[in-house]
Automatic annotation (TrEMBL), chain A:
This is Histidine-containing phosphotransfer protein. It comes from the Eukaryota. One of its GO terms (biological process) is phosphorelay signal transduction system. It holds the Pfam family Hpt. SUPFAM superfamilies: Histidine-containing phosphotransfer domain, HPT domain (SSF47226). Residues 40-147 form the HPt domain. Histidine-containing phosphotransfer domain (HPt) contains an active histidine that mediates the phosphotransfer. It is found in: Cytoplasm, Cytosol; Nucleus. Coiled coil: none annotated.
From TrEMBL, chain B:
InterPro entries: ARR-like, CheY-like_superfamily, Sig_transdc_resp-reg_receiver. Signal peptide: none annotated. Residues 194-233, 242-254 have a biased composition (Low complexity). Belongs to the ARR family. Type-A subfamily. One of its GO terms (cellular component) is nucleus. The modification 4-aspartylphosphate is found at D94. GO terms for biological process: cytokinin-activated signaling pathway; phosphorelay signal transduction system; regulation of DNA-templated transcription. This is Response regulatory domain-containing protein. It is found in: Nucleus. The lineage of its organism: Eukaryota, Viridiplantae, Streptophyta, Embryophyta, Tracheophyta.
Length: 156, 302
């Protein structure tokens, strides 16, 4: 049993480290984790869930704004990008945030094709992150079910 | 409801009752700091609320400058009778918000007789020196770069518990005879993440779209919380997502660090301004000077 828990914990540690190394997460995610405790054990999951809801909403807004036959309101698109950049920054979604920075420049340049491409990338990226974090939460659940404690992972 | 962007006054006792813990609600602490947090982003509201609660603050979070004014009773000319019972020790607001910016909110607060003494802190994701200067000149206590960290909030908290020096030289203590906080009735529990259907399968696929149920079990696992429906396109909020007015100078500037008008200089502000370069420069200069002085003293003695 202990060996199984240890193995899961090792798997978990490696998985988290890989998420940071591959640039999916940054130190703001670490910060969020540090705000979670026994009194608020689901804080990170709650915030991330809200973030992904935000992604759905904002990507939808942007898709509609870019889908206009006629003049595209790049200010509208830019406002949504700004919001997404803000919330991705707040949860440590590093890649999404990086894409938003590019996206913002494309909006300012009124680069339609660039915006459409970037939106697609954002869509893929947040969904990828969601899947990765789902796997992370699954691992946590397995550890707890096996009677272990989810380890604190030192990123440095 | 927090998701609709209304007022969310989740006090610590209510936080506990939303299934996060089973601690008893603490007795009303008249000296407890009450913070009004203003941010149009729900994610940011939740994070700032958590940060403030960890530092033992009562928090009222609203989604716009208008709601903040409404809460403070500043949205109409006549003074509200409720004002006498309203105790707000700090207002922390996002800068970029649709409708009324944090700067405009700051101005209105500083123009009011009831709340001009309350310290106002501005948060922004953009490091624009002109913006920072403008806010500080208008009377902002501090300026935080997003994402806000616990260290930033702890620093704010620390200067709330001592005298706050005002620009005219007068000192203001937190009122000793603090009146109980008047907050709106507690809202329903926070959005759908905590009301997802119970786990019914052994393995949950990454993008489970599970139907919302009214299961309010307090012990939902993160996995279940995480797999909330994807169908929540909140079209009615589109109007709020408009026009954030472009900055006159959007490029971040690497100008020398500027001191704020009052209170502590804001170490995290310095660090974030020029990453660590400015701070290292400052320290290096001080150390350099120190060594020069000690060398002169040593030489003069020999």
């Amino acid at each position: 049993m202990d060996a199984h828990v240890a193995q899961l914990q090792m798997q978990y540690r490696n998985y988290i480290l890989s998420l940071y190394q591959q640039g999916f997460l940054d130190d703001q995610f670490t910060e969020l984790k540090s705000l979670q405790d026994d009194g608020s054990p689901d804080f990170v999951a709650e915030v991330l869930s809200l973030f992904f809801d935000d992604c759905v909403k904002l990507v939808g807004n942007m898709a509609r704004a870019l889908d206009q036959t006629g003049t595209v309101d790049f200010c509208q698109v830019g406002a949504n990008v700004h919001q997404l950049k803000g919330s991705s920054s707040s949860v440590g979604a590093k890649r999404v945030k990086g894409l938003c920075i590019n996206f913002k420049e494309l909006c300012e340049a009124k680069n339609y094709e660039g915006c459409v491409r970037c939106l697609q990338q954002v869509d893929v990226e947040y969904k990828t992150l969601k899947a990765k974090l789902q796997d992370m939460f699954n691992l946590e659940k397995q550890i707890v079910q096996a009677g272990g404690i989810v380890p604190q992972v030192d990123i440095n | 409801m927090a998701r609709d962007g209304g007022v969310s006054c989740l006090r610590s006792s209510e936080t506990m009752s939303v299934g996060i813990g089973k601690m008893e609600s603490p007795p009303l602490d008249l000296d407890e700091v009450h913070v009004l947090a203003v941010d149009d982003s729900l994610v940011d509201r939740i994070v700032i609320e958590r940060l403030l609660r960890i530092t033992s603050c009562k928090v009222t979070a609203v989604d716009s400058g208008w709601r903040a004014l409404e809460f403070l009773g500043l949205d109409n000319e006549k003074a509200s009778a409720e004002l006498d019972r309203l105790k707000v020790d700090l207002i922390i607001t996002d800068y970029c918000m649709p409708g009324m910016t944090g700067y405009e909110l700051l101005k209105k607060i500083k123009e009011s007789s009831s709340f001009r003494q309350v310290p106002v802190v501005i948060m922004s994701s953009e490091n624009v020196l002109t913006r920072i200067d403008r806010c500080l000149e208008e009377g902002a206590e501090d300026f935080l770069l997003k994402p806000v960290k616990l260290a930033d909030v702890k620093r704010l908290r620390s200067y709330l518990t001592r005298d706050v020096k005002l620009p005219n030289g007068n000192k203001r203590k937190l009122p000793e005879d603090s009146i109980p906080v008047h907050t709106s009735p507690p809202p329903p529990p926070p959005p759908s993440p905590l009301t997802v259907s119970p786990d019914s399968s052994d393995s949950s696929p990454p993008l489970t779209v599970s139907p919302e149920s009214s299961d309010s079990s307090p012990t939902l696992s993160p996995v279940e919380i995480f797999s909330s429906p994807l169908s929540s396109l909140l079209d009615d909020e589109d109007d709020d997502v408009l026009s954030s007015s472009p900055e006159s100078s959007p490029m971040p500037e690497e100008s020398p660090v500027r001191r704020q008008k009052m209170g502590s200089p804001g170490l995290s502000y310095y660090i974030k301004l020029g990453s660590s370069k400015l701070l290292i420069n400052m320290i290096a200069t001080c150390v350099n000077k120190f060594f020069k002085i000690t060398t002169c003293v040593y030489l003069s003695h020999n």
